[in-house]
Amino acid sequence: MTLHLKIWRQKNREDKGQMADYTLENVSPDASFLEMLDQLNEELIPQGVEPVAFDHDCREGICGMCSLMINGQAHGPEAETTTCQLHMRKFSDGDTIVIEPFRARAFPVEKDLMVDRSAFDEIIAAGGFVSVNTGNAQDANAILIPKEQADLAMDAAACIGCGACVASCKNASAMLFVSAKVSQMALLPQGQAEASQRVQNMVKKMDDLGFGNCTNEAECEASCPKGIEITNIARMNRELLKAAVTSKTTPTV
Ligand code: SF4
Ligand code: FES
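^ Those are the sequences you sent over. The predicted structure of the assembly is below.
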């Protein structure tokens, strides 16, 4: 395949950045999107052109690093697929593909297609964990959890923290991400002891970092590579309301 690529090039955080055009030939339809970018870089380096910087790690749909807007869609055109698991056979010979970084005030562009998503780490550090001692491993049925509840918690835990939800949202809201992290623990008994403090701290940190609010557009759900549902946002809002009404604590972060 021959592809015409329009790629965002930006030297550093301060640089204004601009689109650059490249034509890439002999792209295998079986290559992944990131392998296609590797191929481009292998051609740019001998020409003395700075290779295109982009985020990646596992290349197996697990780590959440591969953050690209492809033709205006986070992770590209295929539903529930990360960029690293998107294959070039989804495109046609001669296509023009526009490749940009995820854009949000809380995700500054570091270089080219790389963005700093450490704001997500700060939200997790504000409360996305269980710190109480839960003791030794229990017998299998010592803590009873309905199957439906366990399934919902597992579904929420599938979030890989990629940031596509933020990049797709016109408000740059992080509520799908935060609600997945709140839900996975709110649904299980081990998460209850710190539930009030957790939801208050995580939501406050999300707001402080400059993420916007949810206006129920559902773009986040549509772009999520792991199928996280916006019902988690409703659950998070209920948890927040419950914490505000019943808890004596206030956010501590
Ligand atoms: S909710 Fe989905 S889109 Fe958002 S960070 Fe998690 S996996 Fe990525
Ligand atoms: S590189 Fe890890 S999810 Fe894509």
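The mean pLDDT is 96. The chain has eight helices and seven strands.

Shout if you want it in another format.
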